[in-house]
Every structure is written in C-alpha cells, then in structure tokens.
Design a protein that fits this description.
The complex is a heterodimer of chains A (334) and B (244). Chain A has a domain of 213 residues. Helices cover 74% and strands 1% of the residues of chain A. Chain A is built from 16 helices and two strands. In chain A, strands 1-2 form a two-stranded antiparallel ribbon. The longest helix of chain A is centred in the last third of the chain and has 27 residues. Chain A is globular, with a radius of gyration of 20 Å. By secondary structure, chain B is α/β, with parallel strands linked by helices. Chain B has a domain of 163 residues: 3-Layer(aba) Sandwich (Rossmann fold). In chain B, 36% of the residues lie in helices and 25% in strands. Chain B has a six-stranded mixed beta sheet with strand order 6-7-8-3-9-10, sandwiched between helices. In chain B, strands 2-1-4-5 form a four-stranded antiparallel beta sheet, with helices on one face. In chain B, helix 3 packs across helix 4. Chain B starts with a strand and ends in a 9-residue tail after the last helix. The chains are: A mainly alpha (334), B alpha/beta (244). Chain B: One of its GO terms (cellular component) is plasma membrane. Chain B: Pfam families: ABC_tran, BCA_ABC_TP_C. Chain B: Keywords: ATP-binding, Nucleotide-binding, Transport. Chain B: GO terms for molecular function: ATP binding; ATP hydrolysis activity; L-isoleucine transmembrane transporter activity; L-phenylalanine transmembrane transporter activity; L-valine transmembrane transporter activity.
Chain lengths: 334, 244
C-alpha cells in the first residue's frame, strides 16, 4: 500500500513527470524554436544549451551514474569535432557519417583509457583523461598539415541536409534536441536495467559489487566508452553549428570542467540534471555577456566560481534532487 | 564425493608479516563452520584469499571440484561462493530494496524477477518493512541484515559471513541467529567469523581456530572449546574444571 502511494507521488514530481507532463514537454519543445524564430539570439542560446546538455548528459552517464570522475571529457568532444570536420573538409564526407566516425573513435579511445586505468585503484582514470585531452590538444596544434594548427578548421558553408548545414537555426535546434535526448533516455534506462543497477552498485561500493558477482571493470569500461561516444556526437554537432573549431577551445580543460559543472549543478546521477544545469549555466552566460559586453572573459570565470560555491553551499546534491525533495512531501529523505 | 570447499596450504605475507600461514581445511556441503581467533589472527585475510579479494602467495583453493585459486571475486561469486563484509558495504545511493535487487539481478533473467526475489529475501531476513528506506540512517543491526540479504539474493551455495553480529545488541543477536538457522535449513553451507562466542558455539558444529595466521585447532565445536591450547590463546582464563 505504501508502495502504491509512493509511486503516485513519484508521478507528480519533477524527476518522474506524468504522461501528461511528457506530452506538454514534447509540445513545448517542438513549438519553442518556432516561437523564438524572430529572436535568433535566444534561439542560439537554446541550441547551445541543448548542445552542452548533451555533453554534460554524456559525462553524467559515467560521472554521475558510474562515479568515474573524468576531468578530460574535452578529449572526446574534440575527437568528435575534429573527426567530422576533417572528414568533411578534406574528403567531403557527410558530417552525419563524420559524427558516427567520431563517436566510434572516441568510444575506442574511452575504452582504451578505461582498460588501462580502471583496473587500478586510485585517481589514475581522472588523471589519464586530463593527460589525453592535453596530448590531443598539442597534437592538433602541431600537426598543421592535417589540422591547420592553432588557426583551427573552418567548415565551408554549403547548406543542405547531407552537409548538416542550414539557412535557418530551426533544424540545428532539432538536431541538438535529438542528441540531447540520447543521454537523457539512456539515463532513464539505467534506472530500469540490469546494467544500470550494476553501474550504480559499482559507483557506490566496488568491493561489494564484486562480491555479488559483478564484473566491475567491464561495467566501468562499457559506460566510459558509451559516454565518450555521445560526447563526440555533441562535439561533431558543435563543429557544424559554430563552423569553426580550434584546438585551444575544443580540447581545453574549461570545456571538460563545463560538462562536470553542469552535471553537478543540475544533479549528479539524475537524467534531467545535466539539461537543467546546462540551461542555468548557458542562460546565465548569455545574460552576463549581454550585461557585461566586452569584459566577459573574467566575468564568466567569476560566474562559474560563484555559481559552484553557491551550489556546493546550498544545494550540494544539485538542483533536480533539491526540487524533487521539496515537492515530495511525506517521503522524507532519500 | 569431494568436499564442497578444499583449502590447502594457503599462505599470505604482507612484507615481513605472515598473515595467513599454511592453513588447510575442508568444508562439506551443509556444514556450518565457525572461525574464531584473537584480533589480527588472519581470519578476514583468510576470507579475502578464498573469496578472491586477495591473491594468495601460496596454496590452493578448490570449490565444487574446480581450482579457483587466483580467480577474481566476481567469477567466484558467480560460481556460488559469496561473502559479507565485516564493515558493511551498502550501496549508499540506492534504497534497501534496490540494494538487494542488484544482488538478485545476478541470478535473475529480468528486472521484474529480480524485484520479486528481492522482496522474498527481504521477508526472509525480516527487512520487508524497511524496503523503501534510504541507507544513510539505517541502524547497524539493519545494515548487517541488509548485508546478509544481499549475499543471500545471489543464491549462494557457500556463504562467508564476516562478523555479522559484531556491534549488535543482544536481542539483535538472537534475531540474527534465528535468521542464520533458517539460512542453514535452506541448504546453504556457511562459514562464519564471529567474536560473539555464545552465538558461534551454538550455531556451528565445527570450529577452526586461527592464531598468528596459523591453524591452532580444527574440529567439532565441543572439542575445540575444551582444547587447552585454544583456551590459553583465545578463550582466556577459564575455570580448569570446565576444561575437560
């Protein structure tokens, strides 16, 4: 009986919206770009928010559900951006295929890093991800014949579906939304699958998971490969949307940290957390750029810092779990 | 028929310290073996060596007629040998039932089946009314029971219990003993480390005594607790009339 009531309560809150809630959300998400059609600035912000939500959501699969604190996810983001861009610019391969190729490459890279570092106890995985992103940045800067070094790669504007380039921002919006749904739906699936339970068990206590028969290294390597692949998809889309990529940005530590922060602010290990975190951070970013035009570099860093301090102090579990707790009466802590 | 578990000349050194020194014993299906010994005698290390959490330096472990020496813990667990931990290791972000579901999933084909079996195990150990509770504020007695429930949900044929009664109040000890009797009746072979002597002597019909990593005595509980060497090393000063 208590169980039934809990279920009903779950349906009514944030993290477990009802069918009607889903319908409303789907309608809103479909109509939104058309409503903002004449306010390109906001539409642009929204697309970027969805893009970073995809990357943060991908990070969250490994970091939030698996406890694998990658501090170098920019490596996978950059692999995605560079793979699709270079294939398109040099070989005229459709960015759609480039996106798949980037996802495969990044997945292999994630798998490789995982196989080497996740067998060991200690901070080796996090350190290795930072090292790999730095190495890739240096490679992209110095391998000038292929990457044009620090000049970056410009993607020629040839509109058309095959080239993933459009006159209007609306198609970009829907592509970003689709990519964003991948980690979101996967995160939802984790809560309802054997693999997801194993992953959360490994995160919470590795020795106990092993005692129950869970192949903990395999679970971790699989999730890091999946997370890397999706991050690369976001990277490939980013390249197509912004049409210029630079090694000092794509492989940068700040891109890595951005994914971590968005997931943390929204709520680690929640499906909608990274989306929420990205909306808050990207929205604030746009707002502050508006207010402090020209001086955004330093202000942005200060903003991140202050936001993180505020979140850690007042909502350490993240916004989504905090809202969930506030709106769920009677159930108490969980 | 070969014994369920055969341990031969198992040895583990940590630097200059020999934590487990040439320990051999066998366990038959249906046995309830108690392992006792003073702190630092190597009891938990012995568990870690057998269940795959530490590689032994020498010796052999055979389980169900298979040599499993050096196997990883998850593989050994899948073969039907699992354990609980002295310091309980719950999955902190999952609730009580979800903790057991993780374990039940290892021997279920669907999540639905695992959830049903988890319910059954929770009832079996008497945790059913706590199924939705978070781990954070669970009292020690319930944490120990949850530890047992997780292990049972994997359907082990051999279960290692590392001080499941440590830190429990006396009524909780009685309760846990009742549950362990039921586990035993359900056909699970048990090996248990315990400091609560009154409990272990009532439950187990055989005792293995470790002292400084080596086997000091091994035999029926009745004999072992009267062994003068055991009394001196572990049980302490006892009325000489009670010994023999």
């Amino acid at each position: 009986m208590m169980n039934v009531m809990t279920e009903v309560k779950k349906q009514r809150n944030f993290a477990y919206p009802s069918a009607r809630g889903y319908g409303a959300a789907a309608l809103l998400l479909t109509l939104l770009p058309f409503l903002l059609q004449n306010q390109l600035y906001y539409l642009d912000t929204l697309i970027l928010a969805l893009l970073w939500a995809s990357a943060a959501g991908a990070w969250n699969l490994a970091g939030g559900y698996g406890g694998l604190l990658s501090l170098g996810h920019a490596a996978f983001f950059g692999i995605g951006a560079y793979t699709s861009s270079l294939l398109f610019v040099k070989l005229n391969v459709s960015p759609w295929l480039g996106m798949v190729a980037g996802a495969v490459l990044a997945g292999l890279m994630g798998w490789f890093i995982g196989m080497i570092t996740l067998r060991m106890k200690g901070p080796f995985f996090g350190l290795a991800t930072i090292a790999i992103s730095e190495v890739l940045m240096i490679t992209a800067v110095n391998w000038t014949e292929l990457t044009q070094g620090s000049q970056g790669v410009n993607i020629p504007y040839k509109p058309g579906f095959v080239n993933m380039a459009f006159d209007s921002k609306i198609p970009y919006y829907f592509i970003a939304l689709a990519i964003c749904l991948v980690p979101y739906l996967l995160a939802r699936w984790l809560k309802e699958s054997k693999f997801g339970y194993e992953l959360m068990a490994v995160r919470d206590n590795e020795a106990a998971a092993q005692a129950l028969g869970i192949h903990t290294v395999r679970v971790k390597v699989v999730i890091i490969a999946v997370s890397s692949s999706i991050t690369a998809m976001a990277g490939a889309f980013y390249a197509q949307y912004v049409t210029v990529i630079e090694p000092y940005h794509e492989f940068s530590f700040s891109v890595s940290i951005q994914m971590v922060l968005m997931a943390m602010i929204g709520g680690l290990g929640t499906a909608s957390g990274p989306i929420f975190g990205s909306l808050v951070v990207t929205g604030l970013d746009t707002f502050l750029r508006d207010v402090f035009q020209g001086a955004q570099g330093g202000i942005q860093a200060m903003m991140y810092g202050s936001l993180l301090v505020l979140v850690v102090l007042f909502v350490p579990e993240g916004l989504i779990p905090w809202f969930t707790r506030r709106f769920r009466s009677g159930k108490g802590e969980k | 028929m070969a014994p369920l578990l055969t341990v031969e000349h198992l040895t583990k050194r940590f630097g200059g310290l020999t934590a487990v020194n040439d320990v051999s014993f066998t366990v038959e299906e249906g046995d309830f073996l108690g392992i006792i010994g003073p702190n630092g005698a190597g009891k938990t290390t012995l568990f870690n060596l057998i269940t795959g959490f530490l590689p032994p330096d020498a010796g052999e472990v055979r389980f169900k007629d298979q040599p499993i020496t050096g196997w990883k813990a998850y593989k050994i667990s899948r073969l039907g040998m699992t354990r609980t931990f002295q310091i309980t290791k719950p999955f902190g972000h999952l609730d009580v039932k979800e903790n057991v579901v993780v374990a039940a999933l290892q021997t279920s084909s669907t999540l639905r089946e695992a959830r049903e079996r988890a319910e059954g195990v929770l009832r079996f150990v008497g945790l059913e009314s706590y199924r939705d509770r978070s781990i954070t504020h669970l009292p020690m007695g319930l944490k120990k029971k949850l530890e047992l429930a997780k292990a049972l949900a994997t359907r082990p044929s051999l279960l290692f219990l590392d001080e499941v009664m440590g830190g429990l109040a006396s009524d909780e000890v009685q309760d846990m003993m009742e549950v362990l009797r039921k586990v035993r009746e359900s056909g699970v072979t048990l090996i248990m480390i315990e400091h609560v002597l009154q409990a272990i002597t009532q439950l187990s019909e055989r005792l293995l005594v470790l002292h400084h990593g080596a086997k000091l005595a091994h035999g029926s509980t009745r004999e072992v607790i009267r062994d003068p060497e055991v009394v001196e090393a572990y049980l302490g000063e006892v009325d000489p009339d009670a010994v023999h």
